[in-house]
Amino acid sequence: MKSKKESKKESISEQNYVSGKDRVLEAIRSGNEIEKIIISQGIPYHQFGEISLECRRRKIVKTQLPKERLDELYPDNGGIIAIIGQVQYKDFEDILVDVKEDATFVILDQIEDPQNLGAILRSCECAGVDAVIIPDRRACAVTKAAVRVSSGAANYLSIAKISNLSNCIQRLKSEGFWIYGTDIEGQKNYYDEQFKGKVAIVIGNEGKGMRKLVTQNCDVILQIPTKGVVTSLNASVSTGVIIYEILRQRVLSETVKLV
Known about the structure:
The chain is an alpha/beta fold. The chain has helices at 4-13, 21-29, 49-58, 67-73, 92-96, 114-126, 144-149, 165-174, 212-216, 235-258, and strands at 16-19, 34-40, 62-65, 80-84, 104-108, 131-135, 159-162, 178-182, 188-189, 199-203, 220-223.
């Protein structure tokens, strides 16, 4: 039988939280529900001036815990943490309303590792991806670990959970999206493709890659060439490589238009 202390610690571990001054500030400004801010005892509130200002403005509760207790419950806390509500998933159809003509979506086909998911979400937000789509089964959800790894980026993204990726892809095609799969034996190097209009990038499972039916529904299968002994990249790295190529091309295109 577990002690009260063990049960309390387990309950704490299930909470979604972000730690450190910058991540806490990002979480607050994202508009996500913040249950409370906890600061290490002995650190004056004025050291977190912007955070204190945002807390007053948004009526977020601030409290303190002894440093030893905070370190025990929330390791690597940076002196401050924010307890946040669950990430709110968006309705897939709502995301498609008024979708941009140059929208970029990322579809994750059964990504299982929350570290990978969090890193992918961070890259997607930084690169201006419009939506991330994940399956509702046999895949990592946007857990507390994924949120922390994303450095708060998960709170800014439109993330949808769907039951059938193949049907989702067909729906995107009906809205004018061009669907790009990724595989080490792809038909085309990613940098040889011209990404125009609405595009969706499919990233497969860390070990198995994309499922057969998902692959068959893609318009083009891209590959990222490698020269080392290891022939494939981590899923989050692959995502970053391709979405930043899309961003590069679009920034370049806008620059040319301005000249």
